[in-house]
Design a protein that fits this description.
This is Helix-turn-helix domain-containing protein. InterPro entries: AraC-bd, AraC_XylS_family_regulators, Homeodomain-like_sf, HTH-like, HTH_AraC, HTH_AraC-typ_CS, Tscrpt_reg_AraC-type_HTH. The strands form 2 sheets. Strands 1-2-9-4-7-10 form a 6-stranded antiparallel beta sheet. A 4-stranded antiparallel beta sheet has the order 3-8-5-6, with no helix packed on it. Helices cover 44% and strands 21% of the residues. The protein is of the alpha+beta class.
């Protein structure tokens, strides 16, 4: 007989966190909900039957079926009165998870799939739960296992190609990523335009249309945000912060900071120093 089991991952992080999982051999008419889950969840029905409700639609499910829960979306789970389901499940959260969830086609509107469609997902879910029972297992491996599972979700349930981004939005995304990856070097808007192989006038228009600000303003804002964090959370010398944010010298940085934030780096640090 299958026993109830659950695990919790002690290595919590805000980006890619496989927080918990387990096995639930439910009793007849056992119910969860209606309620919203706080994380993404995948459930696999190993045996028995039950009804899963999402987006006001009932799904009558049995062995081999799987379902997906989206955080903040109310669901209801009701075990069958005569043959209650045995459910294996995992829960995961994080800022990176939120972004990756946009790249596979499962949601509260389309939450149900089965082993015939996605046997690798079933196998990986079972592997995660088996790994959690190993006394010497390193919790760091949960993140790697979650990435592999999400990779298979992306492959097996790709987002509809008709929903691809417009070419202008693709260029803007590439440009903002380039800035975020290189803001700590003295790159300029001209460097961004060269990287994208477009002229600066076109780059300016793309940013104004898609971001609502110029590329120079976006780059400056990103640098200022990074500087604010370092000023408030560390005692790193201001000249080092200046270079770390892509400015060649402290005076250039201080002038830009004063113009953008409305106070000098020294004054900002005094007012916002973490205790």
């Amino acid at each position: 007989m299958v026993q109830f089991y659950a695990f919790n991952n002690p290595m919590e992080n805000p980006y890619l966190y496989l927080s918990s999982g387990g096995v639930d051999p439910t009793k007849p008419l056992h119910q969860y909900g209606p309620a919203a889950r706080s994380g993404y969840m995948i459930h696999y029905i190993q045996a028995g039957h039950g009804t899963f409700t999402s987006n006001h639609r009932d799904y009558h499910l049995g062995p081999g079926d799987m379902f997906f829960c989206e955080p903040g979306r109310p669901v209801n789970m009701l075990a069958d009165s005569h043959d209650p389901w045995v459910v294996y499940w995992i829960r995961f959260t994080g800022k990176l998870v939120e972004r990756l969830a946009e790249t596979f086609n499962l949601s509260y509107r389309a939450p149900v799939f089965n082993v015939r469609q996605a046997a690798p997902i079933r196998d990986q879910l079972l592997d995660i739960i088996a790994f959690s029972q190993e006394p010497t297992g390193d919790p760091l491996h949960y993140a790697a296992k979650l990435l592999d599972l999400i990779g298979n979700l992306r492959r097996l349930f790709p987002v509809n190609q008709s929903e691809e981004r417009a070419p202008g939005q693709v260029l803007v995304d590439q440009g903002t990523q380039y800035m975020r990856n290189n803001f700590d070097t003295p790159i300029s808007v001209a460097d961004v335009a060269d990287y994208l192989a477009i002229d600066r006038t076109y780059l300016f228009r793309l940013f104004k249309d898609n971001v609502g600000m110029s590329p120079k303003a976006y780059l400056t804002d990103y640098r200022m945000h990074a500087a604010q964090e370092m000023l408030a959370q560390t005692m790193t010398p201001i000249k080092v912060i200046a270079r770390s944010c892509g400015y060649r010298d402290e005076s250039q940085f201080s002038k830009a900071f004063q113009q953008r934030i409305g106070q000098s780096p020294i004054a900002y640090r005094r007012a916002n120093k973490s205790r």
